[in-house]
User: Fold this.
Amino acid sequence: NELYLQGYGGAKPPFSTDATKLEDSAAQVLEPEAFSYVAGGAGSGATMHANREAFDRWKLVPRMLTDATERELATTVLGTPMPAPVLLAPIGVQSIVHPDAESATARAAAALGVPMVMSTASSTSIEDVAQASGDGPRWFQLYWPSDSDVCGSILARARAAGFSTLVVTLDTWTLGWRPCDLDAGYLPFLRGLGMAVAFSDPAFRQLLEKPPEEDTPTAVLRWISMITGTDRDWSALPLLREHWDGPIVLKGIQHVDDARRAVDAGMDGIVVSNHGGRQVDGAAASLEVLPEIATAVGDRIEVLFDSGVRTGADVLKALALGAKAVLLGRPYVYGLAHGGEDGVRHVLRSVLADLDLTMALSGHRRLADLTAAALRRA
Ligand code: FNR
Assistant:
């Protein structure tokens, strides 16, 4: 409301409140390779664009005289209370867009009580993100190392640092085909960026002949080989329970049968996600597959959603199609690029305010009111 009143009162915000404009202007403030790395998708970009087009195909149908003057946006997901059904998606190597990186993101998220999902590929260590986060809610995203000691050590650190829920990303067991980055010869990890979690881990360091400070390339390759190309299948999931006593969520689910398997495997949640279109070019839009998955799993598992969320209306649509909450990806990174902690906070406040107003004007007082009846397919 503050942003709204200020804006219509004539005060201009420091950065645009429009996520698309922020992306355009991020191209001006970032190094070209860093911008392409964040903004790019796999292959031709077909899936990344499809993610947006899928949102455009659903339209809200507003209701009148519903007494939506006071909205209730707060919710609880897997024991984590949040002011609105929005979390920050795990995004690695934030140091390529701003020197304050994940610490700035953590402070901004904590200031608003929005949960941050910290990436394994962060440029900041687990303990430092936790410190920046203070009392803020925090989840930890895992790129699952094949070495069980290293996996156990990282997860024990995350647990000790107050991360409550584990998000295991399944769709990135090898990196997608990304022509922008290939053409630019740019992969931040090969430059030793985004390695803070691994390089600060005692169990990982023990495996190395020389510490990463003395031989970064070898340490990076050792880490990459540990988190890629593994031959795991669904039977490996119970191993995670040995290292994590909190809720576990599988990220990257797109097929309805995989969603069912996640339920059968006793998982607590899934993130219906195609990694923002960065992995399988030509894959279905994430929003396209959401309704069938939500219907198939019912309330046996928490269904979260990401890939393409940019506005308050997008959040509403994903919720109406069966998600309990959404993860916001690239937009907050553009906020970080423009203004560090303030930039992330600005983006988050804008999305939350937009969501609140869109709820109000479309006549929904409670999140539970959001069903497919709120939408029409164009
Ligand atoms: C990501 N994503 C991601 N996911 C993950 O599980 N671990 C990670 O380290 C990263 N890193 C990462 C870096 C960058 C630059 C981007 C853009 C994305 C995927 C992320 O969590 C999320 O699924 C998508 O960003 C959602 O799509 P939108 O909102 O960006 O369209």
